[in-house]
């Protein structure tokens, strides 16, 4: 796990949280730019997971191996699911869905950093 990349993911997903809460507060569905931003955050998250899987393939074994694998896979599902939901159901609460996904990605990335210690 590259700490700088993890911090970038957390910062970008934090932006998702703020933007999602703002669009919910002003009673608007997410704009196209917000959905594109979420897609960009997903790309960075995919890069982070690939880096994690490459580290594991090279022989790094985290102390909680199964949990780490679960987080590396699970973190990839959140933003696409929220993006799809926000795009299909265009209500003011769609921004809240994106905000919750951003918060979950941020927390899961923080947890991955804690788990990324050798066994």
Structure report:
The chain contains four helices and no strands. It is an all-alpha fold and 119 residues long. It has one domain. Helix 1 packs antiparallel against helix 2 and helix 1 packs antiparallel against helix 4.
Question: What is the gist of this entry?
Answer:
The protein has four helices and no strands.
How would the blueprint of this fold be written?
Layout: H1 3-25, H2 32-57, H3 65-88, H4 93-115
Helix pairs in contact: 1-2, 1-4, 2-3, 3-4
Stretches where pLDDT is under 50 for at least 5 consecutive residues are none
Rg, rounded, reads 15 Å
Shape: elongated
Assembly context of the chains: single chain
Distance between the termini: 15 Å
* Strand percent estimate: under 5%
What is the string of SSEs from the N terminus onward? HHHH
Keywords: Membrane, Transmembrane, Transmembrane helix
Transmembrane segments: 6-23, 35-57, 69-86, 93-113
Protein name: Integral membrane protein
Keywords for this structure?
mainly alpha; 4 helices; elongated; 0% strand; 119 residues
